[in-house]
Amino acid sequence: MCHRIDDVMKLCCELSANQQIQTTVKGSGKGAAAAGGLAFAGGLVGGPLGIAVGGAVGGLLGCWLTSGQFKPLPQIIMELTPQQQQKLYNDLVAILGDIQWTDVAQLTALVMGNATLKQQLTGALLGYITKELQGEVHYVD
Questions:
Q1: At residue 21, what are phi and psi to the nearest 5 degrees?
Q2: pLDDT (0 to 100) of residue 11
Q3: Among 18, 27, 109, 136, which lies 20 to 30 A Cα-Cα from 122?
Q4: Averaged over 81-98, what is the pLDDT?
Q5: Following DSSP, what letter does each residue of 34-95 receive, concatenated?
Q6: Using the 8-state DSSP alphabet, how is residue 22 labeled?
Q7: Which of the two residues, 111 and 75, has the higher pLDDT score?
């Protein structure tokens, strides 16, 4: 059973890498608030120059506050706790249905060869990320 969970987690990594999906874990609002707040405060104190200085200092503070929170989706998937992996696995196996596979390569080939199944699994993965992890999903252009 454990190798099946690993196979599905690796499939999720492949799906997210193939779709070029990036995820931002909640917390980016803190960085934006710091930058905006200090720019506003700088503007009140120093006028236009204060806005520039406050924005620069706020941007650095925002960067520091949010460092380490921006991760590629495959990294986030592989860092899930066993309970989180089990929940994601259960969600995806419900979509996979009675598909049988022997290894992750076969599972990946089966999914990548079926556009409907690929879309359903990607949708479930993104739904899990947004609902369970409160993540924001972005596609790379």
A1: -100, 135
A2: 92
A3: 27
A4: 94
A5: HHHHHHHHHHHHHHHHHHHHHHHHHHHHHHHHHTT-EEEHHHHHHT--HHHHHHHHHHHHHH
A6: E
A7: 111
